[in-house]
């Protein structure tokens, strides 16, 4: 069949690239499809310190460049295309892109998820330069500095408490006058001496010349606008928005099982509810979204895809 691949991987973040490496190394005809540049969220990280075995001063882009090279060294093909539809109803899966249509015996979905941005001026420009969406990844960089956490749900408060291990002060900025987090989490937060709270506040702008230097807040009730400037000795501070994530799963609605938030449930072997379709990385329902868990998912998905093909397709 023309244009038929053994495995098509949708997404070229760490999960997709790891899957591509393992699939191609197993001598499967492998295609990685990505609408943007490879890398996913990790390419916005200036330093990757918690990925096992990463070299000193490794950056998100340098780690991804090595992953891309490894996947290609083993023979995986990579194409840039935006996927607009999928058909998983038949044994041969069909992936429809803006550029062309692709067919595969097995599919690995690795489209990922992205943090919801605040949407204020300066946020995008200063991401990775004081603005971060991952406390586990970047908390250590703000040791003895001040940090602002934007949000009031479970993840925001839990991440804020985690950041108190590093920062000298963490302020939770919430647009309401009470947290939305579970009561048990709130109780711990209010007992934490390093935590402060700014109620009824939203972020209007984040400012800085190459690094975060100030942040502008607006009181939702009074309309008062205030600007916080970095301590002169510090020179900067951290801004961590935790207002939710968006799963990149719209094209899979009614094609595959999704949870209420749009994530894909899988078993431990990355199998979805559709035979021959696997999911890996941040798009999965999971407790920890990190590069190390994404690459593990990708490896498992590729190995399981190989087993599926061996058992369901004759030579």
From TrEMBL:
Q: Which reaction does it catalyse?
A: [thioredoxin]-dithiol + NADP(+) = [thioredoxin]-disulfide + NADPH + H(+)
Per the UniProt entry, the Enzyme Commission number(s) are: 1.8.1.9
PROSITE patterns under this entry? PYRIDINE_REDOX_2
Keywords assigned by UniProt? Disulfide bond, FAD, Flavoprotein, NADP, Oxidoreductase, Redox-active center
Instruction: Please state what class of enzyme this protein is.
Output: oxidoreductase
| Gene Ontology terms describing biological process | removal of superoxide radicals
Q: Does the keyword Oxidoreductase apply?
A: yes
Give the cofactor binding note.
Binds 1 FAD per subunit.
Entries under InterPro entries matching the protein: FAD/NAD-bd_sf, FAD/NAD-binding_dom, Ferredoxin-NADP_redctase_2, Pyr_nucl-diS_OxRdtase_2_AS, Thioredox_Rdtase
The lineage's top-level taxon is Bacteria
The record's similarity note reads: Belongs to the class-II pyridine nucleotide-disulfide oxidoreductase family.
Record's protein name: Thioredoxin reductase
Q: Which organism is it from?
A: Marinisporobacter balticus
């Amino acid at each position: 069949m023309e244009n038929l691949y053994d495995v098509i991987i949708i997404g070229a973040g760490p999960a997709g690239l790891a899957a591509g490496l393992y699939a191609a190394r197993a001598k499967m005809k492998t295609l990685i499809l990505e609408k943007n540049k490879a890398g996913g969220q990790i390419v916005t990280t200036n330093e990757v310190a918690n990925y096992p075995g990463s070299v000193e001063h490794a950056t998100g882009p340098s780690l991804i460049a090595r992953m891309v090279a490894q996947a290609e060294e083993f023979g995986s093909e990579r194409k840039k295309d935006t996927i607009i539809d999928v058909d998983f109803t038949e044994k041969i899966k069909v992936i429809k892109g803006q550029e062309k249509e692709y067919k595969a015996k097995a599919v690995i979905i690795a489209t990922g998820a992205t943090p919801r941005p605040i949407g204020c001026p300066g946020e995008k420009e200063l991401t990775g330069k004081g603005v971060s969406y991952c406390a586990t990844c970047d908390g250590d960089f703000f040791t003895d500095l001040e940090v602002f956490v934007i949000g009031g749900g479970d993840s925001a408060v839990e991440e804020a408490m985690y950041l108190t291990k590093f920062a000298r002060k963490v302020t939770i900025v919430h647009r309401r006058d009470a947290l939305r987090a579970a009561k048990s989490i709130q109780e711990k937060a209010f007992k934490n001496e390093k935590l402060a709270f700014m109620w009824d506040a939203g972020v209007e702008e984040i400012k800085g010349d190459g690094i975060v230097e100030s942040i502008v807040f607006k009181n939702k009730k009074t309309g008062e606008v205030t600007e916080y400037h970095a301590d002169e000795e510090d020179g900067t501070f951290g801004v961590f928005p935790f207002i939710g994530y968006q799963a990149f799963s719209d094209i899979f609605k009614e094609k595959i099982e999704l949870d209420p938030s749009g994530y894909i449930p899988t078993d431990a072997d990355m199998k979805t509810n559709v035979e021959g379709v696997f999911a890996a990385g941040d798009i999965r329902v999971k407790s920890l979204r990190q590069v190390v868990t994404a690459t593990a998912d990708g490896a498992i998905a590729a190995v399981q895809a190989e087993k599926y093909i061996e058992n369901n397709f004759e030579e």
